[in-house]
Amino acid sequence: MTASCPFSPKELRQLVLQHQGLLQPASGKAAVAEVLKQISYVQLDSIYVVERAHHHVLYNRVKNYQPKLLDKALEQKQSFEYWSHAAAFLPAEDYRFSLQRKLLLQNGNNHWFNPEQQLMNEVLARVEAEGPLKASDFISSGQKNGAWWDWQPAKQALEQLFMQGKLMVAKRDKFQKVYDLAERVWPDHHQHQPPTDSEFADYLIERCLQSQAVATVQQIGYLRKNMQLALKQQLKQQLEQSRLQTFLLDGKTWYYRPQLALTNGLPNKVPNKVWFLSPFDNLVIQRDRLKQLFNFDYQIEVYVPAAKRKIGYYSLPVLYKDQFIGQVDVKADRASKILLLQHLVLDEQVKLTDALKVALTKAVLDYAAFNGCDSWQLVKTSARTRDWFVG
Predict the structure, then answer these.
(1) Considering the entire predicted model, what is its pTM?
(2) Mean pLDDT, rounded, for 77-98
(3) How far apart are alpha carbons 56 and 172 in whole angstroms?
(4) Which of 21, 47, 87 is CA-nearest to residue 301?
């Protein structure tokens, strides 16, 4: 029988933050690799109004983070690029579990488009002969005998070969993927055996609970096709083996490890800190979960028509201690090196204390520096917040 939740709402929030690596940033040479393993993946995104999402996620979890550290992790085979629920950097330990999707695609499944096998063969042959190449290396010469190197079909062929596992990303060059043969990027890739459905389900459970502390079956299988049955079977087996426990919250069954506990004196020692989180941060990417556990209703407005935006194009969730207190739309004016807080919205019930002002100011200064900005400017907010924050 499923029990009631053994944790208070505050304890639940702090357990999640603890498992997300936000309360104690990692440090040292292997910090990026440690964080990747702890939180399971870091989602890639190309939006560049401020520093890109994958770097932003790590900035909040790695002490003194710099983008070159992720490049180094990829170069040193501590990480690889593939697909999680979306394009992502994944920990090296998880390479085997990328094979399931690769084999499905090799056996006829499509990713985004129908592959052109002849073009894929020719693209693969060229990478094999010439070494690492970008999509831009396949621009048509304009000659009749070179017309098939039209950029878009070639890019699609490269992506399909990448998704099939025949090519891998060797590195990024100004955010462009540099593709090479899998055996040259990951020399032992042939030694890995693809997981069975039950092994893959076990992997999803382990990674989710390790990074999120508690989760429902829907959250564990987030955007994973055809895995619900295997997940339910594996969850049932682990419950019978006492490897899992459950509780009921908002009418849903949540799973957690029996040894789950707060550490380091929590919940009494959460730092007086503000985090600006990426819209693609692991903590906020599942919006329903975010609303259930943190009572925070968030929507990124990049895809919302400008006239209908309530906050702004690229609004970041604002986390203070263990609660979300608002959002801020941001843009790095790189020419003038000014971080623009284009619209800061704090919830009306938030108490504008001196402690919060100190934490918010530090968060703005640190985030500005991370974006290569020397100063910041508050463009729009409520009169209440402006008088308190700027004054």
Answers:
(1) 0.92
(2) 95
(3) 17
(4) 47
